[in-house]
Amino acid sequence: MLLVESLLLKALAIPLLARIAWLDFTTQKIANRDVLLLLCLGAGGLLLLSLQSGSWWNMGLSAIAGLLLFVALFPFWALRKIGAGDVKLIAVVPFLIGGSDLVVFSVLLLVFALATAAIVKNPFMLPAGAFRLIVQHLDRKGVVPFGVPIAIAAICTIVFLIYKSVVLASSSGILNQLN
User: Fold this and answer.
1) Are 60 and 98 in contact (CB under 8 A)?
2) DSSP 3-state assignment of 102?
3) Quick check: 157 and 104 in contact, CB under 8 A?
4) What whole-number distance in Å separates Cα of residue 63 and Cα of residue 128?
5) Average pLDDT over every residue of 133-161
6) Closest by alpha carbon to 60, among 111, 95, 108?
């Protein structure tokens, strides 16, 4: 039952990540309140999984990954290449995703970051309405919101994890036993 509660905490993070992506795109701000709430949801989910499995490996791996990401990206913030909210957000994502599934997140982040870079370099790839919105936003702000690909990659990873858990539960017969 702890697995279901952990997945519920992950699912609750999806609308919050969508809100963070939208606010980062429109205002270039990621609120500390939102990052802290994500940290609480992620740490709570990891705690439930650790209690169920009896192993603290995933939580420790997540903490180490979050710390390494924060330390690695902090100099980029100091050089004004990335925002402080982006650094905090990417440092919290390992708690939300879990250390064992960071590879999926990393691949998705790479894909979405490359897509963002391609859109910024060549916005003509977009439909007319989206093109106007992106170009007006970039003209106004002059920066690329990196929190958007981080949040989208995290949402896709969470959806994948929930899907994987449901498929595993249905194939193992656990769902039939609960009925």
Assistant:
1) no
2) helix
3) yes
4) 43
5) 81
6) 95
DSSP assignment of 70-85, as one string? HHHHHHHHHTTSS-HH
Residue with tokens 């490359």: 114
- Per-residue pLDDT tens digits for 60-81: 999 999 999 999 999 989 998 8
What length is written for the chain? Answer: 179
157 close to 101: Cβ distance less than 8 angstroms: yes
Q: How many whole angstroms separate alpha carbon 139 and alpha carbon 5?
A: 44
- Look-up: residue for tokens 């449901």? 166
Rounded-to-integer distance, Cα 90 and Cα 86, Å: 6
The residue with tokens 């093109």 is 131
pLDDT tens, position by position, 44-64: 998 988 888 888 888 899 999
Rounded to an integer, what distance in angstroms lies between the CA atom of residue 157 and that of residue 102? 9
Query: Given CA atoms 64, 152, 37, 72 in this order, what sign does their dihedral have?
Result: positive
Whether residue 20 contacts residue 153, with contact meaning beta carbons closer than 8 Å, is answered with: no
Contact 93, 155 (CB under 8 A): no
**Tokens found for residue 137:** 């936003």
Virtual torsion, Cα 56, 62, 65, 68, nearest 10 deg: -80
Distance CA 36, CA 55 (A): 25
Structure tokens at 101: 């599934």
